[in-house]
Amino acid sequence: MIEGKSAAATLDPVLGKAPIIDGIIDGSIDEWEETTPVSIELYQNISIPENGLPIEIKTLQHGDFLYIYIQFELEPADFEDDEFLGILTSTSDSEDEDDFFDAKIVQFSNVTTGDLEFMDYYINNSIFFEDDDSIINGDGAGNLDGNRMTYEFSLPVKDYNNSIYDQVIEAQTTYAFKIIFGNTPTYPEGISHQNIVLINIKFPPEEDNIIDIELIYLILTIIIFSGVFLIFGFYVYRIASLKSQMKRIRE
Amino acid sequence: MSKIRKNNIKNQNLKNSSNNDERFAYRTVILSVTLAGISLIVSLFFNAEIITIFMDQGIFLNIVDIAIKVVSILLFFLFMIVSLANYKELKGEPLKLGNIFLIFIISLLQAFRNSMVLGFTLTGLIFLLIYLYFVHEG
């Protein structure tokens, strides 16, 4: 296992627009546009960093969620149907194996057709136990586009359900996250590549206090253009009534 | 007898000429208001950002987007002024400063979403007002 290995990167999430967790990066709505990717590698053995799988990672916070984006490229033949990618959350910034308590995994059953399942586990003595289905916190998805695989995750920065199975991520705290990758749907045996990053969780702004500028713009647009069209319509009506006035005068 | 007939014909000609002028002015009002309406619809689509195909698609398409937005508002203003001036003439009233100010404001308001469009529109409207003032004075 991993001993005495320092994190590959320390990431500061951008406070931005929430992406849709579907594994698809929609440029038309500027998904993940505010973020800058950080390149790291996943290794078979973190203590021996060689033959790494290069990945790009982005982090973003919106409201009460931390969003993580991971993208990498492989030769099409190297994608296995049972591929998975997971995010393991430590109880703190500790990178000790035993401190990784929570696991969110996107498990494909068929990479080509995009069949997948988002799975929520807790870890006890390196054994993965599936959470109670009714209290799944967060979301995850993946999508293969050509030779590029994209995974997206959302993790709550608050504990909504007081789940004993989930690691509560507190704001203004640094946590260690382990990224795991593999091609066999057994955990932890199926993990082939992994690495650790530290993420400085920011203080999420209170949703209730956020004035949604876009909403204000939309309301103002509706008011202004309705007003303009009303004035214009009234003027057209006056022109129409002028015609009948002119007819009466002529007669 | 012939003098009365001549006067009648003259009056009839004057009446016909006046009617023709009125019809022409009314047609101008209708044509101008139609063109103003088309400009307003174009402005609604682009300035209310219902159509955003040119937005954030590179500098060239951004310029096209801004140009469409500004030109549609300026054309709306121009055709509305022409239409209203003819309408007022038909009614025998002068075009008041308040009317021009109202059209100026409702034109400018359409550009509120984009500061660059607002700036160019304001400049364009001021130029149009100066132009119309000098044409009128001339």
Mean pLDDT of chain A: 85
Beta strands of chain A, count: 13
The Cα radius of gyration of chain A reads 26 Å
Low confidence ranges of chain A: none
The share of residues in extended strands of chain A comes to 35-45%
Task: Bin the strand percentage of chain B.
Answer: under 5%
The main β sheet of chain B shows up as: none
Give the domain tally of chain A.
2
Helix percentage of chain A: 10-25%
Short description, anyone?
Chain A has 251 residues and is α+β, with helices and mostly antiparallel strands.
What can you see in these coordinates?
The longest helix of chain A is centred in the C-terminal third of the chain and has 38 residues, at 213-250. Chain A has one helix and 13 strands, in the order E-E-E-E-E-E-E-E-E-E-E-E-E-H. Helix content of chain A is 15%, strand content 39%. With 251 residues, chain A is of the alpha+beta class. A seven-stranded mixed beta sheet of chain A has the order 1-13-12-6-7-8-9, with no helix packed on it. In chain A, strands 2, 3, 4, 5, 10 and 11 form a six-stranded mixed beta sheet that branches. Chain A has two domains: 9-201, Immunoglobulin-like (Sandwich), CATH 2.60.40; 211-251. With 138 residues, chain B is mostly helical. Chain B is built from four helices and no strands. In chain B, helix 1 (2-47) packs antiparallel against helix 2 (59-91). Chain B is elongated, with a radius of gyration of 21 Å. The A-B interface holds A 30, 217, 220-221, 224-225, 227-229, 231-232, 235-236, 238-239, 242-243, 246, 250 and B 19, 22, 26, 29-30, 33, 36-37, 40, 44, 48-49, 56, 80, 83-84, 87, 90-91, 102, 106, 109-110, 112-113.
